[in-house]
Specification:
Elements: H1 2-17, E1 21-28, H2 31-40, E2 48-55, H3 59-70, E3 78-82, H4 85-91, H5 98-104, H6 115-122, E4 134-146, H7 147-151, H8 153-163, H9 173-183, H10 203-214, H11 234-245, H12 259-267, E5 273-277, H13 281-284, E6 296-299, E7 304-305, E8 311-312, E9 315-324, H14 331-341, H15 344-351, H16 359-362, H17 365-368, H18 374-380, E10 384-385, H19 393-409, H20 414-431
Parallel strand pairs: 1-2, 1-3, 9-10
Antiparallel strand pairs: 3-9, 4-5, 4-6, 4-9, 7-8
Helix pairs in contact: 10-11, 10-19, 19-20
C-alpha cells in the first residue's frame, strides 16, 4: 500500500514538473511556424509550452481563427493573421489591444518596431494609433531572375539589337514586358515571366494589385467609400491589363498558378523572371531545392510609368501580424513569452530563415549581409501597399478574386471585370452600413488624389 502511494506521489511530482501552461497559436504551416517552435524550446520558463495549431495557407487558416472568435472561444491564445484581417478581428472586438501591453511592459513598446510595419500589421482603424497586432513575420513581393541569362554576352547583344537598349533587370513593367517577351521561347522550354493568377484565397489579387497601384490605380476612396470610378478608373484598368498581358509570357496554364507553381517552374529552369514573395527566397537560394540557385538573383519588383507620366512603384505587403485572442485565460503568461521572444537574441535566430519585424535586427549590418536578398527586402519595405483595412475584407477579397479571375481567363475584359467588382464592392459596403459620398467626378489616375507617390523620373533600385 505504501509503495503504491509513494509511486503515485512520484508520478504527481513528475507531472507538476512538466509544463503547467500551454500557449496555443494558429498559423499556416511552413518555415516560419517551424522557426517559432524551435526557438520556443529554449524559453527559460519550463512551465510554459508553445503548442501549434497549424493549417494550410489559405481560407482554412483564416476560417480557423474566425470560427473560434465567432463562439468567443479560447481554443487558441494567439494567432498570426494577414494584415488585412486585423480590421475584421479587431473590429469585431476579438483581439487584445496591444497598446495596453505597451503601457505596462518594460520590454515591449511601439519603438522597437518600424512605425510603418507596426501600422501595416496591427493598426485599426488606420491612423488611429490603436494596435491589435505586432509585425511577427514581415513579407513583400519581390523579383527573382536568372542572372546567367542576363549576363550572357550573346543574349545581351541580341536584346540590344531588337530593343535598342541594354539588357538589364527591369525597373518598370514596360521594361519587364520587353524582357519577358525576349526570353519567351516555348520551343526551348523557356518563358520570360511567372506570376500567380489562381482563384484561391488572395493569389491573383496580391499580384494584380501590385500592377494596379504602380500604374496609379486604387481599390477605393477610403474617405468617401467610393469604389466606382476608382477600382475601374483608367489607371486601374491600365495596371490590371498589364498584369493580364504578362501571362502571355508564362507557361501554358500559368493563369491558375499559386506560389508553389511559380517556385516549381523557376526551380526547373522554365522562367527567366518571376514575381514571388521574399518568404520563399531562402528555398530558391538553396542548391538542394533549386538547381539554378547559383545563378538566381533577387531584386525589387518593377514599378510603372502611368498615363500621367509619373513613375510609381508599389506592391503588396505580405506576411502576418501576431494578435492575441481576447478570450484567452492566459494573457499574463503570453505577455511574458512575448517579452522574451521579441528580444534581439531570439529575433536574430528567427531572422536567419524568415523576415523579422524587430527594428534592431532589420537595421543591423549583420542581418542585411546575411544572404543575397535581405538588403533588397529592407528596400522593398518602403514600397508596400495593402488591401482595404475594413472588417468586410473577406467578402471584398472574394469578389475581387472572382472578377480578376474572369479577366485572366478572358471571360470578361479587364474593364468589365473591374466595373463589376466595383459594383459588388459598393453593394457590400452599403449593406454593411457605410455611406458612400459620391463625388462630382473621379480622377483618371486615383493615386493623385488618394496617396500620391508619383515621381517625375524612374528611380532605379535594382
Amino acid at each position: 500500500m505504501y509503495s503504491t502511494a509513494a509511486a503515485l506521489t512520484m508520478c504527481l511530482g513528475a507531472a507538476s514538473a512538466k509544463a503547467e501552461t500551454e500557449l496555443t497559436f494558429v498559423w499556416h504551416a511552413g518555415t516560419c511556424a517551424d522557426a517559432l517552435l524551435e526557438i520556443a524550446k529554449d524559453y527559460p520558463d519550463e512551465s510554459v509550452t508553445i503548442v501549434p495549431a497549424l493549417v494550410p495557407y489559405g481560407p482554412e487558416w483564416h476560417n480557423k481563427i474566425a470560427s473560434e472568435f465567432a463562439i468567443k472561444g479560447d481554443g487558441f491564445d494567439f494567432a498570426m493573421w494577414d494584415s488585412q484581417s486585423t480590421a475584421e478581428f479587431a473590429g469585431g472586438g476579438h483581439a487584445v489591444k496591444i497598446n495596453d501591453i505597451f503601457d505596462s511592459s518594460d520590454v515591449l513598446s511601439s519603438e522597437i518596431f518600424p512605425a510603418a510595419s507596426l501600422s501595416q500589421y496591427g493598426e485599426y482603424p488606420d491612423n488611429s494609433g490603436d494596435f491589435y497586432g505586432l509585425p511577427m513575420n514581415q513579407d513583400a513581393y519581390g523579383l527573382m531572375y536568372r542572372q546567367d541569362l542576363f549576363d550572357d554576352p550573346e543574349e545581351q547583344a541580341a536584346f540590344k539589337e531588337k530593343y535598342g537598349r541594354d539588357l538589364t533587370v527591369p525597373e518598370t513593367y514596360q521594361e519587364a514586358k520587353e524582357v519577358a517577351e525576349f526570353f519567351t521561347r516555348p520551343d526551348e522550354g523557356l518563358y520570360g515571366w511567372g506570376q500567380m493568377g489562381g482563384r484561391e484565397y488572395d493569389f491573383a489579387t496580391t499580384a494584380s494589385n501590385s500592377f494596379l497601384w504602380s500604374f496609379g490605380g486604387e481599390l477605393y476612396n477610403p474617405e468617401t467609400y467610393e469604389v466606382l470610378g476608382y477600382l475601374n478608373s483608367p489607371a486601374s484598368i491600365d495596371g490590371v491589363q498589364a498584369y493580364v498581358d504578362m501571362f502571355e509570357y508564362g507557361p501554358p496554364g500559368s493563369g491558375s498558378w499559386g506560389f508553389d507553381e511559380v517556385n516549381a517552374a523557376f526551380q526547373q529552369g522554365q522562367l527567366a523572371m518571376a514575381m514571388q514573395w521574399f518568404y520563399f527566397n531562402g528555398s530558391n537560394a538553396d542548391p538542394a531545392v533549386n538547381k539554378f540557385a547559383e545563378s538566381t538573383s533577387f531584386g525589387i519588383l518593377p514599378g510603372a510609368i502611368g498615363r500621367d507620366g509619373k513613375f510609381r512603384r508599389q506592391f503588396s505587403v505580405g506576411g502576418q501580424g501576431m494578435g492575441i485572442n481576447k478570450y484567452s485565460q492566459k494573457l499574463p503568461e503570453l505577455v511574458k513569452f512575448m517579452e522574451w521572444y521579441f528580444q534581439p537574441e531570439q529575433q536574430e535566430r528567427y531572422a536567419a530563415v524568415c523576415q523579422t519585424g524587430l527594428k534592431a535586427v532589420l537595421e543591423s549590418d549583420d542581418w542585411q549581409g546575411l544572404n543575397s536578398y535581405n538588403a533588397q527586402f529592407s528596400t522593398a519595405l518602403q514600397y508596400l501597399n495593402d488591401y482595404w483595412h475594413l472588417p468586410e475584407y473577406p467578402v471584398l477579397l472574394d469578389q475581387l478574386q472572382e472578377e480578376i479571375s474572369n479577366a485572366i481567363t478572358g471571360s470578361k475584359t479587364v474593364e468589365e471585370a473591374l466595373t463589376d467588382a466595383a459594383k459588388k464592392h459598393e453593394r457590400t459596403l452599403q449593406r454593411a452600413g457605410y455611406e458612400i459620398s459620391r463625388s462630382d467626378s473621379t480622377p483618371e489616375v486615383p493615386d493623385q488624389e488618394i496617396t500620391p507617390v508619383g515621381q517625375d523620373q524612374v528611380v532605379p533600385v535594382n
